[in-house]
């Protein structure tokens, strides 16, 4: 079987970083997954691409040869794909929940382009931008590696906390975040990076680390973890209705900066259609979109 473009992107990242962990962070995937894919690529091609030891990674002669060709292939594909997207007026929009599918009609009407949804996992905080599966994305800030992206904020919202109804503070109308510092929290997957930190409230902890009770990769995981008493979790205000569940409640939190929902795109994508889309978003082309999971 011939290698996929994804395999070539993975290979180029490792070849340029010469460090599997750094390359995995750049690609927003887990390091064991990246190592497994590179080994599979070597088996497919029946060559050794990297000399590996405990201290360093280096390209073999075969690896150097592939790097030159892989860069040309990926560059040609990006040029071709951009031309196809422009010709078909189809924009791929990354979204971290299938609950956002109802947005497509409104977005298409506002932008004047046909849109295709790219459902993204919480392990990818760029919602498909980093791996080029999406042209635009609706994301909660902050974005990973902000120099790679541009964005426009669509709206800001207060952060709330989801907690069991029998929690000592569940009866309060509002909860000061300072009163939650000793609580256990449900964290996003480690791959979420800065977004994980934000939804743990690390921007208001003054360097005090959060206590992690569990990790959750989906809204259902969050609901189950909070229901089991494993910890609390922070939510965007507009998301609170989707987390209604027997035995759970949510309260607004004071002492925390608000969260920001943004439309984002890659900094190297200067297509007029992309910039036009972002401008229409900010000018109110699709006001108050439905809740998207934090």
From TrEMBL:
Mind telling me which PROSITE patterns this protein's record contains?
A: HTH_LYSR
Per UniProt, which keywords does this protein have?
A: Activator, DNA-binding, Transcription, Transcription regulation
Q: Which GO terms describe its cellular component?
A: protein-DNA complex
Give the Gene Ontology MF terms in alphabetical order: DNA binding; DNA-binding transcription factor activity
- Residues annotated as domain HTH lysR-type: 1-60
Matching entries from InterPro entries are given as: LysR_HTH_N, LysR_subst-bd, WH-like_DNA-bd_sf, WH_DNA-bd_sf
Q: Which family does it belong to?
A: Belongs to the LysR transcriptional regulatory family.
Task: Tell me what this protein is called.
Answer: LysR family transcriptional regulator
């Amino acid at each position: 079987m011939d290698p996929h473009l994804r395999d070539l992107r993975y290979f180029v990242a490792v070849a340029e970083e010469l460090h599997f962990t750094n390359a995995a962070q750049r690609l927003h995937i887990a390091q064991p997954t990246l190592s497994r894919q590179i080994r599979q690529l070597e088996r497919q091609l029946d060559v050794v691409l990297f000399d590996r030891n405990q201290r360093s990674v280096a390209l073999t002669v075969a690896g150097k040869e592939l790097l030159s060709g892989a860069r040309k292939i990926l560059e040609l594909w990006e040029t071709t794909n951009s031309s196809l997207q422009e010709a078909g007026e189809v924009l791929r929009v990354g979204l971290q929940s299938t609950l956002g599918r109802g947005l497509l009609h409104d977005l298409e009407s506002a932008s004047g382009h046909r849109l295709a949804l790219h459902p993204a996992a919480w392990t990818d905080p760029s919602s498909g931008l980093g791996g080029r599966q999406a042209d635009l994305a609706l994301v909660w800030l902050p974005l990973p590696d902000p120099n790679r992206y541009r964005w426009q904020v669509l709206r800001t919202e207060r952060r709330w906390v989801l907690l069991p109804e029998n929690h000592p503070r569940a009866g309060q109308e509002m909860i000061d975040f300072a009163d939650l510092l000793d609580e256990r929290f449900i964290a996003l997957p480690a791959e979420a990076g800065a977004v994980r930190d934000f939804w743990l409230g690390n921007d208001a902890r003054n360097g005090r680390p959060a206590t992690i009770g569990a990790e959750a990769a989906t809204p259902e995981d969050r609901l189950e973890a909070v229901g089991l008493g494993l910890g609390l979790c922070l939510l965007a205000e507009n998301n609170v209705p989707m987390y209604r569940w027997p035995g759970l409640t949510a309260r607004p939190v004071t002492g925390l900066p608000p969260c920001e929902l943004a439309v984002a795109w890659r900094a190297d994508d200067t297509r007029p259609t992309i910039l036009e889309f972002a401008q229409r978003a900010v000018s109110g082309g699709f006001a108050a979109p439905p809740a998207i999971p934090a």
